[in-house]
Amino acid sequence: xxxxxxxxxxxxxxxxxAKKFYPRFTGWGTQPFDNDYTMWTxxxxxxxxxxQLSDEMRQQGVPPNWMPYVESNDVDNTVAKATSLGAQLLHxxxxxxxxxxxAVLQDPQGAAFGVYKSTSGMSGWDGTASVxxxxxHELMTTDRVAAFEFxxxxxxxxxxxxxxxxxxEMYSMYGHGQNMYGGMFNATxxxxxxxxxxxxxxxxxxxxxxxxxxxKAGGAVHRPQMDIPGGSIAILGxxxxxxxxxxxxxxxxxxxxxxxxPTAKKVAKALKGAANSLVRAAKKVTRKVAxxxxxxxxxxAKKVAKxxxxxxxxxAKVATKKTPKKPARAATRSKTTARTASKTPTKxxxxxASKNASKSRSKSASKARPNARKKTKxxxxxxxxxxx
Length: 388
Prior knowledge:
The protein is α+β, with helices and mostly antiparallel strands. Helix content is about 40%, strand content about 30%.
C-alpha cells in the first residue's frame, strides 16, 4: 500500500561482520541477491538488505546507517512530487531486475529515505507488530512540522498523536488512521546542527535478552532498556556504528508507542539522549575508519619505500663487485712463457717450420677473436652495471 514502510537497508563498512551480528538477537537469515547485495530475511521472507559503505560515501561524510524505504504506487511520480516540494534526488529512479523500481531521496531537512515499488508481490508494513519485522520509524529533524507536511503530501500520512517532550517541544506521531508507523521530533540542545536521520526499531520477543545478546556480540547500548506502556524499548549501535532500536510488545497491548503524559516526557527525554549518542557514535566510527585507512596507506608507502631502498642497495653491491683477475693470470702465463722462451736456444727456422708457425699464428689469431668479443661484451655489461 502506498505510504507503508516496505524495505530496510543497512550500509556498513563490514558486511560479513553485520551478517553475523544481527541474526544473534533478531532470528534473521541472509540471502544473496547478487555479488554486492545481501538480503535480510525473516521466516525466509526478504525484509531488507545490506551492502558495503564505499570510500566515496565515507569521504562525503556518510556514516554506517539504516535507511527505510516507503512503498510507492509510482516511483517516478513520487520522485517528481518530492523534488517539487524541495527534496533532493540522491539515486535513481532505477529498475532492479526481479524486484521492482527504487529511488533514494533526501527530504528538505536532510534525512535520507527510499521509495520502492515491488514487482514481486511484496507488501508494506500495516502497523501491526510482528517479531522479526520493524515496528517503529522515528525521524529526528530540524523542523518536525515542515517534515510532517512533506511526508503527508507524498504518502498521505496522518498525524495521530502528540506528546510533550518538555520545554514546548513536541513529539508527533503519524500513520494511516489508527495504525501508527512512528514519530517525529526536533533536534534541540546538543543535537542541534546534527544531520537529520531515521531511526528504525526492530521488533523482538524480549528486549532484555536481545540487548544482552547484542552487547555480547560487540554492540553498544546508547539508551538502556526502558519499559513503556504496552512494551519495552532500547537503543543501540552495532559494532560498525549504525544505530538501531529494539522494541517488544507486552501481551494484549497495542503495538504503537502510547502517548500517556507521565511516560511521554520520560520516553521523549530518552529518545533525545539516544539520538545524540547515536550520532556521536557514528561520527566516531567514521573517524576511526578514516584514521585506519590513512594509517594503512602510510604503512604501505613505508613498505614500498623500504623495498625500493633495499633494491637500490642490492643493485649498488652488484655494481661494485670486482671482476675476476683473469687478465692478470694471462699476463703471468705470458711472463712464464717468455722466460721459458728466453732460456731456449734460438734456432733459425726452416722453411717448413716457418710455414707451420705461420699457420699456427693464423689459427691462434682466429681463436683469439671470439675471446676478444666475449671480453668486450663482458666489459660492456660491467660498465652498464656500474652505471646502474
